[in-house]
Amino acid sequence: MRTEFVTAVLAVVDLMPPGVAVAYGDIAELLGSGGPRQIGSVMSHHGSSVAWWRVLRASGEAPPGLEAEALRHYVQEGTPLHGDYAGYLRTGEGRWRVDLTLARWAPSDDDFDAIDAISERLERQLHKLSVPDDEMTV
């Protein structure tokens, strides 16, 4: 995956305030590049440096294997949730998800300006050659 794309995705996620969430496809749409699978791949491999729990499946389900950690973040940030999240916090059992209808991030004008700048920089950089970040290149 191109490092420029990874950098752009993470920069958009960094703009998101606490208490909101988006689907992988929302980030792709905002950037005008990639798709849900590419965004998911970036978040899976490189998302630990940003608020990864704010980017999830379109169903509102947390990233697999990280549900408990994500739920603690959602509760702390006041992210709107559906289902038995309180039971899940107590026992590790129960179904819940983020209510994306209420939690979906609505970028401000300043956020859109920043996203446009990130997207334009990405577009310029994608026309240049880059070294793949595959951890195999010397």
Automatic annotation (TrEMBL):
Q: Which domain of life is it from?
A: Bacteria
Q: Which GO terms describe its biological process?
A: DNA repair; methylation
Q: Which UniProt keywords apply?
A: DNA damage, Methyltransferase, Transferase
A molecular function annotated in GO for this UniProt entry is: methyltransferase activity
Task: Indicate the segments forming the Methylated-DNA-[protein]-cysteine S-methyltransferase DNA binding domain, all copies.
Answer: 4-62
- Which InterPro entries has this protein been placed in? ATL_DNA_repair (IPR052520), MethylDNA_cys_MeTrfase_DNA-bd (IPR014048), MethylDNA_cys_MeTrfase_DNAb (IPR036217), WH-like_DNA-bd_sf (IPR036388)
Q: Does the keyword rRNA-binding apply?
A: no
Under SUPFAM superfamilies, the record lists: Methylated DNA-protein cysteine methyltransferase, C-terminal domain (SSF46767)
Query: Which CDD domains does the annotation name?
Result: ATase
Q: What is this protein called?
A: Cysteine methyltransferase
